[in-house]
UniProtKB/TrEMBL annotation:
It comes from Micromonospora acroterricola. It catalyses: 1D-myo-inositol 2-acetamido-2-deoxy-alpha-D-glucopyranoside + H2O = 1D-myo-inositol 2-amino-2-deoxy-alpha-D-glucopyranoside + acetate. Binds 1 zinc ion per subunit. InterPro entries: GlcNAc_PI_deacetylase-related, LmbE-like_dom_sf, Mycothiol_biosynthesis_MshB. It is an enzyme of class 3 (hydrolase). This is 1D-myo-inositol 2-acetamido-2-deoxy-alpha-D-glucopyranoside deacetylase.
Amino acid sequence: MADLGGRVGSRRAEPPVRVTVVTMLPDRRLLLVHAHPDDESIGTGSTMAHYAATGAHVTLVTCTLGEEGEIHVPALAQLAAAEADQLGGYRIAELAEACAALGVTDHRFLGGAGRYRDSGMMGLATNDHPRAFWQADLDEAAGHLVEILREVRPQVLITYDPNGFYGHPDHIQAHRVAMRAVELAAAEGCAPAKVYWTAMPISVLEAGMTHFAESSDNPFAGIRDIADLPFGTPDAQIAARIDATDQHTAKEAAMRAHATQIPASSWLYSIAGNFGGEFMGVEFYTLAVGEKGPGAGPYGWEDDLFAGLSDETASDRRPVAAAGSR
């Protein structure tokens, strides 16, 4: 080897030097806790895209790989849990594509990819799998989330209500873990100032039922009364309405990235075609922790999840150290 001045060729190999790169996160930081890949896009995709586009730091924490999901791509049927059981790994790639569509660059799996397994629908034998998220130790799982809260220090956190929006065990457990993590983080002084739960106003559901009443692709088929649905929040209890209609195409692209879970013929795309941004771009929340900020309309709905936060809280820039090697 040529002599390069420092006689590189004659020196013994040394371990790589660890380098710590310190970056500053933006003033506004939003963290979302979801159960499976695709939940983020369907329920909060426009909100995520909106805040990412306006310069906020958006962190997505997904609790499982979604191993028990149905597969709507026939060519991938062999990935199912009852066969090769490789759907979870495939969905990691789908989630990465969805996050890219939403402009979200900070995504984590709770405890690391595969630490917790999709529990399947309530009452199935899969609930009892030893790695099922439904069986997770609450404080242990919350501890993984607290580590992220310490690092990112989000002012706002989004997760599900106590029923997991519609009763799925992993959604319920995600709620429990997120709220326990907030409690633990509060004791350390690093809890978010506001916690929101995803919601759907009764008025929006009623409008949907009316629209689809004569449709052959009616997602409300068999439902005669709004009260029969496992979700739906009185309008007066809604705290925030995020109008991100300019991001509805990003949300739709993110949903299409989850092709194994959302078939191209889904009613979601049908209604998106009819209503576009009005359907895809508007998302609603109730406020579980923190003080409601200024709002508008008959119920004073906020139009910004950071509404009411003090300048000091909203501008608390966070240095983040990322270790690498060279």
